[in-house]
């Protein structure tokens, strides 16, 4: 009997990459691969890359350098694959700069991994970054019950890929292609299977998830609100989330869903990028600050306990001190529970990369530091406001100390619970007692009324 081959997958970037990494592992499980957390013992290493953040490609090349050294010192024949958006954007360049790489595969070709690996195993260096006609989701296998349990009670489901917005700083339309929505029936089947295997929380993901317009069972086009209403009817599914959204697609149906669906968590990630109308126009965001304020007002009217998160880019080409002050003003007016902020970094092939008015690095660094101080103060204030409140916590994994379990609040905060009378996969009512910089901790108030013994609760066994 042959020893199983071992697979190590490292994901960079967004939740969609985490989902894609799981689907690649599920595909390769059929080929006899089992996952390992140690790249040194792997027969196949896959770097699933992201091209959104600053110096993303260089981080990949640095990782490839470590793998090359490790492979040489061990004298191994480990195959090295680069997947994801850097692979899509720089396939031939990766092969030129990193001879250690055997295979480059874009996000639309993961279902072809077995045949591509066979070519690589035969000694051919393979690049597959096409946008195939067939739907990869039709060919990717479902995870086994054991794989789902090992990943915990919260899962991602991709419902939409690609983007048609063409923000001038972003490579997604070029690396992921045009907006495509999956059929409703296939999404429901995937979600129902996950829930049957013990998943309690599903996050619907897409590069522009609230632009979802999948074909429904009746042949009509369903929007995201209608899809979530259908998923909320799945017995055993306690929580729904979705990310990442664009303000242009935040319609009244979706806002009403936050009011009407108890399963939909009161937490919304809605990237704004800048508070300046002039910069938003230069970014081709197709919304203004007043549009954003109006959306926030509607959301909070529908769901007063809503918490908000966002993305910000500072130092976009042409950004003046006044433009930056508009961003600070927007942050103060909205009040974010959390946020991600970055210095602008050019992406080859995007319109903003060739803009004549590039902001000096020192100015970008100063502005980022000031913005992050303001955002961190907002997060600290929101976390502090949670002290004494009682939340339903979904228990997800063991804590660092014996008897501890860690879960997530409705607002995605990490919550430490000591000696809970429950198991992973259960919902527990917890009163927040302490607020730390990275997590909250609390005491058990009571089991949630929907908490019940589930297959996932025994995953540690």
Automatic annotation (TrEMBL):
Localization, UniProt: Cytoplasm
Reactions mediated catalytically: N(6)-dimethylallyladenosine(37) in tRNA + (sulfur carrier)-SH + AH2 + 2 S-adenosyl-L-methionine = 2-methylsulfanyl-N(6)-dimethylallyladenosine(37) in tRNA + (sulfur carrier)-H + 5'-deoxyadenosine + L-methionine + A + S-adenosyl-L-homocysteine + 2 H(+)
Entries under InterPro entries matching the protein: Elp3/MiaA/NifB-like_rSAM (IPR006638), Methylthiotransferase (IPR005839), Methylthiotransferase_CS (IPR020612), Methylthiotransferase_N (IPR013848), Methylthiotransferase_N_sf (IPR038135), MiaB_methiolase (IPR006463), rSAM (IPR007197), rSAM_horseshoe (IPR023404)
Domain Radical SAM core: 149-383
Keywords for this protein: 4Fe-4S, Cytoplasm, Iron, Iron-sulfur, Metal-binding, S-adenosyl-L-methionine, Transferase, tRNA processing
Family to which the UniProt record says this protein belongs: Belongs to the methylthiotransferase family. MiaB subfamily.
PANTHER family per record: CDK5 REGULATORY SUBUNIT-ASSOCIATED PROTEIN 1, MITOCHONDRIAL TRNA METHYLTHIOTRANSFERASE CDK5RAP1
Quaternary structure and partners: Monomer.
Protein name: tRNA-2-methylthio-N(6)-dimethylallyladenosine synthase
Lineage of origin: Bacteria, Pseudomonadati, Pseudomonadota, Alphaproteobacteria, Hyphomicrobiales
Gene, per the UniProt record: miaB
